[in-house]
Amino acid sequence: MSSVSSSRVSSSRVSSWGRLSDAEHRVVPITSADAAPGILQASAPGIARGMERSYGDVALNAGGTLWDTRSMNRLLAFDDATGILTVEPGVLLRDIQATFSRQGWMLAVTPGSEIVTVAGAIANDVHGKNHATMGTFADHVVSITLVRTDGEVIVCGPHDEPEGRGWFEATCGGLGLTGLIVQASIRLKRVPGPWLLAEDIPYQSLPEFFELSDASEQSFEHVVSWIDITTGGGRRGILSRANPVPSPHREVPPSATPLGAAKGGITFPVVPPLSLVNSLTLPLLNRAYYRLKRAGAGSKVVHYKPFFYPLDAVEEWNRAYGPRGFYQYQCVLPRATGLESVREILAIVARSGQGSFLGVLKTLGDREPIGMLSFARPGVNLTIDFPNLGRSTLALLASLDAVVSEHGGRLYLAKDARMPVALFEAGYPRLAEFTEYRDPGISSEMSRRLLGS
Amino acid sequence: MPALPSRPGSKPSPWPTDLVVIGATSAIASDCTRLWLEGGASSALLIGRDQVGLDRVATDLRVRFPAARIETSARDLLDVQGIGEAVSAFAGAGTPGAAAGAGLTVLIAHGSMTEQAESQADLAKAAAVLQVTGVSPSLWLEAAVDTMTAGTIAVLGSVAGDRGRRKNYIYGASKGLIERMAEGLQHRTAGSPLRVVLVKPGPTATPMTAGLPQKGLAPVSAVAAEIVAGVNAGRPVVYAPAKWLLIMAVVRSIPRVVFNRLDF
Known about the structure:
The complex is a heterodimer of chains A (453) and B (264). Chain A has 453 residues and is an alpha+beta fold. Helices cover 28% and strands 24% of the residues of chain A. The longest helix of chain A has 16 residues, at 391-406. The radius of gyration of chain A is 21 Å and the shape is globular. Chain B is built from nine helices and nine strands. In chain B, helix 3 runs parallel beside helix 5 and helix 5 runs parallel beside helix 6 (169-189). In chain B, 50% of the residues are buried.
């Protein structure tokens, strides 16, 4: 019931997905590519924000400016012959999937939530369950238009030589620090429709996981696994694998139609005073989930939504961790010592009694990413959520850092809110190259924490 | 008069085949247009002040719905002469034999938000708000009802029109004007195939409200979905999101002596 002029910008509290902070920000809407240079020049320094689905501080700027591109959600062109789609930065992956899956096209790479923007997917160079075959999001980006805070406009792509390619590699996975993305062209992938033939297979040990995962990657595009992190060493988990499949006569679930998606589904209703995930509930939740999945093991045709985006079904599920929020720890460890390092981490986590029922174990394909600061690289990826219990959680995460560091792994910046600078620098060898491309008028909490400005 | 959320027993209207959207570049209007085309509407005429903005919306719709016919028309929405001409152009020339407006849904969505303090301090600004947000949409509504004999005409009011508050009564008065117009036109068209729908969005997260505390602002996609469902069903009054029906029933019923002491 408030009225506000479009020129006036006031303060607003903003949290990222981990809900670890709730600071005031000056939110400045960017409504068109033409208006962006003027707005940036007038309001820098700042950082772009999308749907705030990153877990840590990559898109936070406490007390400062956030450039909000969410209303730039228009599709600009689609070429039916090549599958190249040109969009504004705030278009949601959900919108692309719903609009094009019926026409036989989908995103080649999608992360575990579709409620993220295209620009956010580029800036964090996200990956999905098909990393072995399709790489990361950036592998399917054809062109990016960037606006710098001095007003300069840069168009870059992966095949530009050499200057454009530098901008492209810095911007993909570049945490929004090279300029504001105002337009992108991405190549969609031909699919038979919105359906997948999916299969869940229980496993009882880490060696079994690796064997099963490697075998699955030979014949399945999508492979991922849930692991029970309470069993100390990964004694049980469920591997899920799937391939696109034609299934023309099935009814699309209501939540997958644009009207259904717009209406939204179930929302986690309140922030409970304490995390619902705690040392009492944790083993129970994990055991229950394992038994549920084991009981339903086998092959079935599923819509892409429950397979790709199971957590999107409950909006604001991050509230379940209570008012103090949570950390997501996501690392990639070299494959050579993957078994030992994953075992070590799981042992430490089980001993601590912390963690959650979100444990994801997956192998990443043998390909180096395009982006200078992209996360996905050959190895094994382990992801665990931890309710924030304060110092004890930070101490636990520091002991996990030691394992990651010892084995030459790295942490995912899109999920991070606390990694030490040394671990960041060791994990991202192209950092020095990246800093050449930074926009001096762009700064986030993460860039100040890890890059010093 | 307390607003009823729906007319019990009324039949849901068929999905529109043609759309006309006035103020088509607004976030709520463009999301509604997408949903209508998604559901099977085959054409949309986008009317607004700014050709560049209209082209942006039209391009998006053409990419999404390659089979639909998308047209734009940039015009001065305050030009009284032009309103009648525009309305007879889109609603007057129907299929011979069919009622004017059959299968057509018109959404009148334009308006402007100006900071209350600014329009309070400057009569010219107050006049502009009243004109753009109140008088002009009311005249488009009048012209559409005069021309159409079937179909649906929806107009965006606001929860702000339900009761005058010191923080936004000039904007609220404009929306209140729309409400009385819609109410009278509903009375006038009662029993005819033509339906008039008053839509009252609550605070919505749009570029206009990006600087406000985001807590409590409804996502524009959810508001649009509520509007499309309510307009299709031909409900006389659609609160979007629906919870505002209850909230505003309470707000309207607060005795003046209490209300005037509240700071909101």
